[in-house]
Request: fold
Amino acid sequence: MSTAESLAQQITNALPEIKRGGTLRMFGEWFGRAWDNSHEITSAMGSGNLLEMRFDESETLCVWDPKDAVISKDEFQIARASRVRWQWFYYGRPQRPENLHTIEYRVSGHSISVSDTTDWYEPEHNPDVTAPAVELVSFPVELLSPQG
Reply:
């Protein structure tokens, strides 16, 4: 069984207990603004070197050659990968092909190339090859507390 297949099985077996939700960060870059949104893993599949996870709003996260993962009720992180692709439908619009967008990171040595199909603004990407390939980051307590 490959690492990706093993991770998919681990995620699937632990879904009721694992940290399955949070704000997505890939190679140190937030998807959207920091803590702007929350995503929950609903399923995981592995095949060969590919780990594919599905999320609660029909998003898909694909991670090739995942390594050094921490998956628990408090943390979800994949430290290294050769490639990461996040696909999502423009939020608030119908889930049709014309509203499907993709950000893809490809690691080559000590650099990362990024492709992004966002078309409503010019995204600026500055991925960090030393940052975790993927992580779901919890909202800070002060953001969850009611304003008084």
In short: Confidence is low (pLDDT under 50) at residues 141-145. The helical segments are 3-14, 141-144. The longest strand covers residues 39-47.
